[in-house]
Design a protein that fits this description.
Layout: H1 12-19, H2 27-47, H3 50-71, H4 80-90, H5 95-101, H6 106-113, H7 121-130, H8 137-154, H9 156-163
Helix pairs in contact: 3-4, 3-8, 5-6, 7-8
Protein name: HTH cro/C1-type domain-containing protein
Organism: Mucilaginibacter dorajii
C-alpha cells in the first residue's frame, strides 16, 4: 500500500484541529457528563473489595504525603498529626484500635493528633509495618523533619531562651 504524502506544510492550528476533535459542551451537557462519570466511578469503587478499597486509600494517602514532602513548603495545618489522622481514617480504624495495633497508649494517639506530642523513630517504623510497607517510615520521618525545621525557623521564644546559653557570639558580617 502506498501512502499519499501531503506536499503543503500544515500550520500548528491545522495539526491540532486534525488530531483533536472539537468539543463544545453546554452547561447542561457538562453536568450530565460529570454525573455519568461520577456514576461510573462509583460502580467501579463499589466493585472493589474492602481490602482493595483500603489499599487504594493508603496508596492515595502515600501519594499525597510524598507530594507534600516534595513541595518543601511546610503548612502548619498539615503537620504529623494531620497525616496520622488521615492514615487512621484510611486504615478504617478507631483511635483506640489503632493504639492497640501499634502498641501505644490511646492518649499518646490523641496527643499526636492534637500536636501536643512529637513522634519518635519507633512509631514511624511501626507505622510503616502497620501499613504493610505501603507508607515508608522515611516519609513519616521527612514529614516530621519538615515540621521541626519550620519550628526552628519561626520560634522566636526558643531563640531567646537559647541566647542565654551563648557567652560570646561571633561578630560576623553577612
Amino acid at each position: 500500500m502506498k501512502k499519499k504524502l501531503i506536499d503543503t506544510p500544515l500550520t500548528d492550528d491545522e495539526i491540532v484541529d486534525a488530531m483533536v476533535p472539537p468539543v463544545a459542551l453546554t452547561a447542561t451537557e457538562k453536568n450530565e457528563a460529570d454525573l455519568e462519570l461520577a456514576g461510573f466511578r462509583k460502580v467501579r469503587r463499589d466493585a472493589l473489595g474492602k481490602d482493595e478499597q483500603q489499599l487504594f486509600q493508603l496508596r492515595k494517602l502515600r501519594v499525597q504525603l510524598e507530594e507534600y514532602i516534595n513541595t518543601d513548603q511546610f503548612q502548619p495545618e498539615k503537620n504529623f498529626g494531620f497525616f496520622l489522622g488521615q492514615y487512621i481514617k484510611a486504615a478504617k480504624r478507631k483511635q483506640v484500635e489503632f493504639a492497640k495495633d501499634v502498641d501505644i497508649h490511646r492518649t499518646t494517639v490523641t496527643n499526636l493528633l492534637k500536636h501536643r506530642k512529637k513522634p519518635n523513630d519507633s512509631l514511624m517504623i511501626r507505622l510503616e509495618i502497620h501499613s504493610g510497607n505501603t507508607i515508608p517510615a522515611i516519609d513519616w520521618f521527612k514529614l516530621h523533619e519538615m515540621e521541626k525545621g519550620y519550628e526552628i525557623r519561626t520560634s522566636k521564644s526558643l531563640r531567646e531562651k537559647e541566647r542565654a546559653f551563648v557567652k560570646h557570639s561571633l561578630d560576623v558580617l553577612d
